[in-house]
Design goal:
Order of helices and strands: EEEHEEEHEHEHHEHEHEHEHEHEHEHE
Bound molecules: zinc ion
Number of helices: 12
Length: about 350
């Protein structure tokens, strides 16, 4: 089959790979309805994460189950399913505490930019929809697989509640869906930090009440000005740089909550500075599996439309253009049709 392979920084190609097969009785094979390029794929694409030789790409997926191993009980061939970028047995202690992305049997999905995907631990990883959803819902269902699940975790981990004042740092797809999630959780004021017009418009549509274009110390100062010098109850850090993390902590009120879901690159904390901020910090790879049933329901009932973050759709063969467009911030997120 044809799969997206990263050869070197800025060099992603379609290459021939062996068709996936059932390897374990707990595996399932999925015929992909859609996949996409993730903001986190840009780290290796830009050479900021080193790669050891040609590397298959992609970890966001949804599609039709084609084949299952002998031990799989909860999904059947012909069902439409969504799964997380981290596999989980959904039974170990970490899973039962709701941290399926730290399942003791976790594997990271790494070959989803392809027409067929092998999903280990299918019973604990995949969530089937009731019936095959209509085609127009596929982008939003695909979004639940990572970006919406991650944005939702960001809002949940930052303790967003009815009436909260929320700041979202980062206007990538995860940040934008953090805005949507905070709105769903009843936030009263949602301050989105963005200087990009198209993203600002989508942030507004998803529920942002205010926009801040300043960054770093200036951005944090602006939020303090807007909150009578107190800071926000909840700040969602959706980038992963030192500047964005510092900005997030500075914009939070004493005793407030900072979640961080952008994979930190070069981020360091000074213990003593952190001590006097009084903030709660909670982040990590989002336990998307915890939220999937709820998010799928919200999509199927057309309560939310997270698929709007896909502003570019390409055939899988043109995956390189998807990476280029996201790298240049010409596209928020590229959907790929295998
Ligand atoms: Zn587990």
């Amino acid at each position: 089959m044809k799969a997206a392979v990263l050869y070197a920084p800025y060099d992603v190609r379609i290459d021939e790979r062996a068709d996936p097969k059932i390897e374990q009785p707990t595996d399932a094979l999925i015929r992909m309805s859609a996949t996409c390029v993730c903001g986190s794929d840009l780290w290796p694409y830009r050479g900021e994460n080193p790669i050891k030789g040609p590397t298959t790409m992609g970890h966001e997926y949804c599609g039709i189950v084609e084949e299952i191993g002998g031990a799989v009980k909860s999904v059947k061939p012909g069902q439409f399913v969504v799964g997380s970028f981290a596999t989980s047995d959904n039974t170990c202690p970490n899973c039962r505490y709701g941290y399926q992305s730290s399942c003791i049997h976790r594997e990271w999905m790494t070959m989803a930019q392809a027409p067929v995907l092998r999903v280990p631990l299918a019973d604990g990883t995949l969530v089937p929809t009731p019936g095959v959803p209509s085609n127009d819902l596929v982008p939003s269902l695909l979004a639940t697989s990572d970006v919406l699940g991650t944005g939702w975790f960001a809002a949940d981990a930052a303790n967003v509640k009815s009436g909260s004042t929320v700041v979202v740092v980062g206007d990538g797809a995860v940040g934008l869906l953090g805005v949507l999630s905070a709105k769903q959780m009843g936030a009263e004021r949602i301050i989105a930090m963005s200087r990009h017009e198209k993203r600002q418009t989508l942030a507004r549509e998803f529920g942002a009440t205010d926009l801040v274009t300043e960054r770093g110390d200036e951005g944090a100062k602006r939020v303090l000005d807007m909150t009578k010098g107190i800071g926000a109850d909840s700040v969602l850090e959706c980038v992963g740089t030192q500047e964005s993390m510092t900005q997030a902590i500075q914009a939070t009120r004493k005793g407030g909550y900072v979640s961080y879901v952008g994979v930190p690159h070069g981020v360091e904390f000074k213990g003593e500075e952190l001590f006097y901020t009084h903030v709660h910090l909670h982040g990590g790879p989002a336990p998307v599996r915890r939220y999937l049933p709820k998010l799928i329901d919200l999509v199927l009932s057309r309560t939310i439309n997270p698929g709007k973050v896909f502003d570019l759709t390409l055939p899988l063969e043109e995956v390189a253009e998807g990476y280029r467009a996201m790298d240049a911030r010409r596209a928020i997120k590229a959907l790929l049709r295998p």
